[in-house]
Amino acid sequence: MPKSVYVILLALAAGPACESEVGEQRETGPADSAVPAVDEPTAAEDTTVGWRARWCRAEVEDRGPEPEAEPEPPAAALRREIDELEAALEADPDGGEAPARLLRLGRLKKQYESVMRGYGAETDRAVEHARAHPDEYWHAEIWGDYLYNGYHFEELLRRFPDSQLADDAAYEIARMSNSVGCEGFIACHVQLGFEDFRDFLARFPDSEFAGEAVERANEAFRWPLCVAWVDDLNTPTETYRPEPVRRYLAQYDTVAADLPAPLRVRAYEFIADLWAGYLDYDRARQLYRLILERVPDYEAANEIRERMESLPTAHLVLAPADVIGSSRIDIRWEPLPNVGVQRYEVYRLTRVPWWDGPEGTLVATLPADADTLRYSDRQLEPATDYWYQVIARTGTYDVASNRVYARTKEPEEGSDG
Fold first, then answer.
1. Are 101 and 145 in contact (CB under 8 A)?
2. How confident is the model over 159-176, as pLDDT tens digits?
3. C-alpha Rg value of the chain to the nearest Å
4. Domain map of the chain by residue range?
5. CATH number of this structure's domain 322-407, picked from the four choices 3.30.420.10, 2.60.40.10, 2.40.160.40, 3.40.50.740
6. What three-state secondary structure class fits 402?
7. How many helices (H) and strands (E) does the chain have?
8. CA–CA separation, 320 vs 59, rounded Å?
9. Is-above-0.90 flag for pTM?
10. C-alpha to C-alpha distance for 256 and 120, rounded to whole angstroms
11. Nearest to 47 by CA among 317, 350, 368
12. What is the pLDDT of residues 12-22, one digit of tens each?
């Protein structure tokens, strides 16, 4: 399937942007990022795409058929039970049955959404019901639907926080329909899919729903990254910014530390793979080691040991590029310590490739003992996209940096750049 189709799939969830980070993404590069080629695949490159090889393949192959949904009761029966529960709660709002009634009522109100998407008298009654309960439903103007907002689940948590049904209500909230469209921006998709399950796991780590919540938290990262085919977690594109997604991953890392051991290692495996993709090999190594120490009989222990042993001991990180006017871009990086670097090679690419696309152009070679590891690329074309990557050559193996994107500015009127 062409990569453009994956991006379109994300873009179909159009609507208001979910937070300011999304707006910032509009200023970054095109959705496909370049891959400056080297003669041999390097350890860094193998690690950065390793998460995709494992988790995106799982996205396609391992999920299996969706379970069959239980048939919904007729609209009239739904409405009748809703009326009965509302009457019972009005008559006895704080009795022993109130938490169970609130939970059941919330689930029925959620089901009642589907009735509003049909036609005929029952749909008209459902819409009128939603309009008569503005504190329970909001109107999604994009689709013209009324969606339940979880009012009764929130009431259960507010009024009966110690109830045995509190985690049921909290999990229903985490699974609620979301009103915000992301216009294809990946950080927004991750945010909307992750935050509610993060909050649930932090509050109810021992819940019977925690295992499913871990899978859904993993899915919140995996689905948008795989569907949009983000082949380098460190390179910004038109729809992807590394910083916010990395921040959500750090939050997940923190929450996972307090989960029961069997769930913790399931979360840690996924988190560690993404940290490796972000070139944070130290944290990835720590998490892999924790998995092996805490649950030595973990089903993927041998594979995790191999991943840990294959992590590079050194990594090269390019800072964000500096755009200087319409014809110059500066890049910089820190030296690699204690690995015997002979030279640094700077590669530039000027057009969007497929992920197995054209070679980059070697534009500069810097000695390992250069006073400043910085390259200033001059005499560039205005208003043009460029990608850069640095390869550290040691004579025995290579270390590849992340790729950075930049676009030169429009020429100022009356200026030659």
1. no
2. 999 999 999 999 999 998
3. 26
4. 1-58+72-312, 322-407
5. 2.60.40.10
6. coil
7. 14, 10
8. 31
9. no
10. 48
11. 317
12. 433 344 543 44
